[in-house]
Amino acid sequence: MTAPGRRSSTFTRLLRHGFTDPSAAELLLDSPELTAVRSDPVLLEALGGTADPDLALHGLVRLLEAQRAPTDRRELVDTLIAAKPLRDRLLGVLGASAALADHLARHPGDWRALVTYEPRDLHPGVEEFERCLAEAGDPVALRVAYRRCLLSIAARDVCGTTDLAQTAAELADLATATLRSALAQAGAAAPGDAAQCRLAVIAMGKCGGHELNYVSDVDVIFVAEAAEGAEEDKALRAAGKLASHMMRICSETTVEGSIWPVDANLRPEGRNGPLVRTLSSHLAYYQRWAKTWEFQALLKARPVAGDLELGEEYVAAVSPLVWQAAERENFVADVQKMRRRVVENIPVAELDRELKLGPGGLRDVEFAVQLLQLVHGRADATLRSGTTLDALQALAAGGYVGRADAVQLDEAYRFLRSLEHRIQLYQLRRTHLVPEGEADQRRLGRSLGLRTEPVVALNREWRRHGGVVRRLHEKLFYRPLLDAVAQLAPGEARLSAEAARERLIALGYADPAAALRHLEALASGVTRKAAIQRTLLPVLLGWFADSADPDAGLLNFRKVSDALGKTPWYLRLLRDEGAAAQNLARVLSAGRLAPDLLMRAPEAVALLGDGDGAGLAPRTRAHLEQETLAAVGRADDAEHGVRAARGVRRRELFRTCAADIVSSYGTEAQPAEPDQGALVDRVGGAVSDLTAATLAGTLRAVVRAGWGDTLPTRFTIIGMGRFGGHELGYGSDADVVFVHEPREGVPEQEAANAANKVVSEMRRLLQIPSADPPLLIDADLRPEGKSGPLVRTLKSYEAYYRRWSLVWESQALLRAEPVAGDEDLGRRFVELVDPLRYPAGGLDEDAVREIRRLKARMESERMPRGADPKLHTKLGPGGLSDVEWTVQLLQMRHGARQPGLRTTRTRKALAAAREAGLLSEDDASTLDEAWVLATRVRNAVMLVRGRAGDTFPSDARELAAVGRYLGYGPGHVGDMLDGYRRTMRRARTVVDELFYADR
User: Fold this and answer.
1) Which of 157, 387, 608, 936 would suit a FRET pair with 450, their CA atoms being 20 to 30 Å apart?
2) In this structure, are residues 645 and 613 in contact, taking their beta carbons and an 8 Å threshold?
3) Are residues 712 and 742 in contact, defined by beta-carbon separation less than 8 angstroms?
4) Is the pLDDT of residue 442 over 70?
5) Cβ-based neighbour number of residue 115 at 10 Å
6) Cβ(798)–Cβ(810) under 8 Å?
7) How far is 394 from 385, CA to CA, in rounded Å?
């Protein structure tokens, strides 16, 4: 007897052997069924070697209790102790699968299926499984026989007799035998139907690939032909009945549960199409209507049941179509898009536990391997395997995948599939989620051989292998392109020039020969620089391929690398900062403007490297002005000072472009910005602030060079148009008016001469040809336009506006806002023009008519000849002019009474008009959407073409690049244009109602 407070020796031994509930285990060991062997060290050792000793012991006691006679119980105990193979197999299964323990408790004689240990028993195939199922004459008996076979597969698996690939193949063979048995039962139940048709069952998915899970849908396609002398329609109906019955035999729940669902949704037209088709009907569909994913699915097609000759004919007929799929337009993009869509559909709460579909999961491996097979399998028949691991090995042998990468991916895939098997084996339920409970994770870890801290070790290994998959699944596709032009390790196979060319074409490169030359220039050699490039380029190539112009992305990357290649921080930044590399790839392949800005000062690449995105965040006007003025202050003369100011502007323009591109495209770490209005506001605000700071710096440089610290006249610059509205685009001029006021004691003519000289010198310095983009100053919105003086005094403005001001000038003043120079003078100018732009009594009817007349004239006279008005962002129906004139009319009519309307910003004024009840919520939303979209298109055109434009590009690649910037995937340019026209059409309807209504 054990003394109080002390543990029994059995309790201690149970703890040592891995039991988590030794007290319950002691009670089970004391049960009558185990009396004779409860102290046998062989039994405890064997139980301790299982995944879950507590579960194994509980299952063993249940099995012994279920034996129908004492002799049966004695036979089991004796065999268990005497025969190590049975002991390991039986206890291994009981410790890993509660569901199979339940089966054994219901069918206590099935343990004898684990006794046989002959060589032919180690790796059974379809024939052996067919013999095991031969006596099953009904669905219930088939389930029992199926579980018995599954018991032997699981036993070999948990004992390590078979590896992952062999286990998956055995499960597929058992599924094949089961489908044949089920089809035979269906045929026996309806012999008349069976006689009328030839029916072939084509396995798809993992069953077709000979790599099935323990619990998985079995994907199939049915092909039928009329038997000799039978009518085709009747034969197809008969085949449909047989196919449906076969599916029910496998799928329906009986007293013995179900086997697995048979899923025929991979057939042509999916669940909307007929269950059974003739071979010619299949071919007609695949030749005309099939999508890329359907050819990808056909990679694994394999005849398994029914008329195998017909099944082979089917595979032979569709196979050529499969290997031509890579020639389809947007093939790689379609496959990658489908992969992204799978991930996006995973519930957020399950994403981190999703073993199959999540990032770094099994599907990543399978997609990457299948993509490579489809690209290169047309010319290389050795790649045409439906089994993932066999295909991966063939890809490595052929040089299509680096051997080291293939080994790592093979190891990761085997681990993840083994973990998936163990998860499913426990309850025999279809799941791909790693359980969260510690007990479940402990069992899983031990089942995979992780006996020291199994929970910690399991999570560590899972994350490690998932990380390998995430890192390699895209790299697999691009890495060998470098090996085709770089020096390889001895014994490493090389991707042939033709294979590299095919892969680049599939990726969307228009000039694969030039691309290979760039890769050779970047990655050849034995220098550290070349080695880092070989590490970076596989991933960069994928990001370039995700753009509308991969060729330009690669060429630009070569140019930047040539410029910065000897700079120690450049490649280190790209290698160590994942965000920097992806941001750079996006920027270099999105169009001409950002790369052009970067090439003029490549060191701006450093802005892309902040992982938190702070490097791309727009700087405030105060910070920009402070830096610009400091740079000007260090310069020796005005020209050098303005050159410094323009250098700051160039760098900040690049920062703004890069942030806009990255936010529009999105990255792995940060999805694309969903709020298009926020993107427009960010660009407009950043470019406007930058322009204001540049003008302030230029003004300081000119004044200091000509007059020292003080100009003879106070001088201010008023932003107009988009500049005053904080809505400048990348290609916008700076619309301004200049105001001065002579200082006390200074003659007016001297002050005017000084002011005019300042303006003239500012315009000259900002347009001097240099590496920096010019800043064009447009003063045409001044009184009297181009005919009037370039600079006026405040009093002159007051006199002009009092006597001569036209309604269009009052409208233009709605955007007036001081941007640089004397702040007090700027404030007084605003006070002067406020009564003009927000008249106390609103606008009279003559003024309203004049505004409407001017707008109609502008639409008819300024539209470029040959332009499509419906696609013109500024003057087209529903475009910028429509929205802005409508908002400005509301401001002038109601601004005096509604303070919220007194703003220079279009969107802010539109929101204020809505809040004031001047237009409905829907109308305001429609106008805002149109204005934002038109502005985004203008920005996109400038980013893509490197020059301003008000309509969509005609070049196909440029048009596609605009589409990518706006969020449209490859092949959806038509959708983009249709969406634009639809948005503008709705806006024009609102404009017609608001602008021409008397309100």
Assistant:
1) 387
2) no
3) yes
4) yes
5) 13
6) no
7) 9
Report the SS3 class of residue 230: coil
Residues 910, 714: Cα–Cα separation, whole Å: 35
- Does the structure show a pLDDT above 60 at 611? no
Give the whole-angstrom CA distance, residue 328 versus residue 639: 56
Structure confidence at residue 121 as a pLDDT band (50, 70, 90): low
At 466 the three-state DSSP class reads helix
Do residues 232 and 224 make contact, with C-beta atoms less than 8 angstroms apart? no
Spell out a b/e string for 666-702, using b for 16 or more CB atoms within 10 Å of the CB, else e. ebeeeeebeebbebbbbbbbbbbbbbbbbbbbbbbbb
CA dihedral 915, 918, 923, 929 (to 10 degrees): -60
What is the SS3 string spanning 39-85?
Answer: CCHHHHHHHHCCCCHHHHHHHHHHHHHHCCCHHHHHHHHHHHHHCHH
Q: Give the closest residue to 766 by CA, choosing from 832, 667, 694, 689.
A: 694
Between these two residues, 490 and 689, which has the higher pLDDT value?
A: 689
Nearest in space to 813 (alpha carbons), one of 728, 735, 899, 907: 735
Using pLDDT thresholds of 50, 70 and 90, give the confidence band for residue 1. very low
| 186's tokens | 């269906």
Question: Amino acid identity of 180?
Answer: R
pLDDT of residue 474: 60
866-869 contacts at long range (C-beta below 8 A, 24 or more positions apart): 867/951, 868/951
3-state secondary structure 577-643: CHHHHHHHHHHHHCCCHHHHHHHHCHHHHHHHHCCCCHHHCCCCHHHHHHHHHHHHHHCCCHHHHHH
Interval 60-81: pLDDT, tens: 999 999 998 989 999 999 898 8
Q: Report pLDDT digits (tens) over 656-683.
A: 999 999 999 887 667 888 899 999 999 9
Provide the 3-class DSSP secondary structure of residue 792: strand
Convert 835-882 into a string of H (helix), E (strand) and C (coil): HHHCCCCCCCHHHHHHHHHHHHHHHHHHCCCCCCHHHECCCCCCCHHH
Q: What is the pLDDT of residue 668?
A: 66
Residue 37 CB burial class (10 angstroms; 0-12, 13-18, ≥19): middle
Q: Residue 592: phi, psi to the nearest 5? A: -95, -35
In sequence order, which ranges of 345-402 are alpha helices (DSSP H)?
A: 362-376, 388-397
Q: How many CA atoms are closer than 13 Å to the CA of 668, on its beta-carbon side? A: 18
CA distance 968 to 282: 32
**Mean pLDDT calculated for residue range 14-34:** 89
Q: CA 509, CA 495: separation in Å to the nearest integer?
A: 17
- CA distances (Å), 575 to each of 11, 521, 533, 568, 890, in order? 55, 19, 9, 12, 54
pTM: 0.68
Distance CA 36, CA 82 (A): 13
CB burial readout 512-547, b (16+ within 10 A) else e: beebbebbeebbeeeeebbebbbbbbbbbbbbbbbb
DSSP code at position 123: S
Tokens of 584: 């750079």
- 859 Cβ partners below 8 Å, 6+ apart? 875, 881
Judge whether residue 206 has pLDDT over 90.
yes
Over the Cα atoms of the chain, what is R_g? 38
What CA–CA distances, in Å, run from 224 to 22, 235, 308, 545, 559? 59, 8, 11, 42, 59
Angle formed by the axes of helices 139-159 and 126-133, nearest 10°:
140
- pLDDT recorded at residue 262: 96
**Cα 618 vs. chain centroid, distance in angstroms?**
25
Give the SS3 label for residue 221: strand
> How many other β-carbons are positioned within 10 Å of the β-carbon of residue 553?
27
DSSP symbol at 270: G
CB 718 within 8 A of CB 739: yes
Spatial separation of the C-alpha atoms in residues 674 and 114, rounded to whole Å: 59
